Amino acid sequence: DAKTTQPNSMESNEEEPVHLPCNHSTISGTDYIHWYRQLPSQGPEYVIHGLTSNVNNRMASLAIAEDRKSSTLILHRATLRDAAVYYCILRDGRGSQGNLIFGKGTKLSVKP
Amino acid sequence: GAVVSQHPSRVICKSGTSVKIECRSLDFQATTMFWYRQFPKQSLMLMATSNEGSKATYEQGVEKDKFLINHASLTLSTLTVTSAHPEDSSFYICSATRGDRAEAFFGQGTRLTVV
Hints:
The complex is a heterodimer of chains A (112) and B (115).
Chain A: E1 9-13, E2 18-23, E3 31-38, E4 45-50, E5 55-56, E6 61-64, E7 70-75, E8 84-92, E9 106-111
Parallel strand pairs in A: 1-9
Antiparallel strand pairs in A: 2-7, 3-4, 3-8, 5-6, 6-7, 8-9
Chain B: E1 4-7, E2 10-13, E3 19-25, E4 32-38, E5 45-51, E6 57-58, E7 67-73, E8 76-81, E9 90-97, E10 104-106, E11 110-114
Parallel strand pairs in B: 2-11
Antiparallel strand pairs in B: 1-3, 3-8, 4-5, 4-9, 5-6, 7-8, 9-10, 9-11
C-alpha cells in the first residue's frame, strides 16, 4: 500500500482555520485520498475523500495538489470538538471493499 | 446514513476466559467487515478481514485460533478473543463497507481489559 506522511501533531486556536497536510508521493493513479478522524476513546469517523479535484462537504474541504503527491485537509473554523487524531489514508479505488491501513496520523489540539 | 454498532463498549474479563465482541451494520448490508486493534497512544492495526459466508483473512502475526472471527450474515460479524491474557487488553474496533459508498463506517470500539 502506498504510504502517507503527516506531522505528528498540530495546534490551532478555536474558530480559526486549520490546514492539515499529508504527503503521498508514491500515490498510484487508482488511489483515492481518504481522511478519517478519531476522537478519544471512539472509533474513527469518516471526514472526506477525493481523487483529483478539490472536495467540499459539511465537515471539511480537501485540497489535492495537481500532481496528487500531497493533499491538505481544511477545517474552516476549528472548534474544541475537532480535537482529534486525523488520518490521511490512500485507498485503491478499483475495489470498494479494500481495507484501510492507518498510519500514525496528526493529533490536532484546539485551544480556546 | 450508515451505522455500525459494536457491543459491548467495555468488558472486563478474567485471564483464561473468552470474550465475544459483536459488530453489526444497522441499516445496510456489509459484505466485508474489518477488525482492528489499537493499543494506547498507537494507531489502529488491522487484524483481519471478514467476508460473509467465508473464512476470515488474518494479517501476518495475528493468531487465527486465538482471535476467532465469524461473519454469519450480511449484518453481523463477531470477534471472539479466546483464552484471554492481560496482553490482549486493548481497544478493538470493527468497520464495514457498503458496495455503493467509498468510505468505511466504524463501530464505536470495545475496550477489553483482561485481569
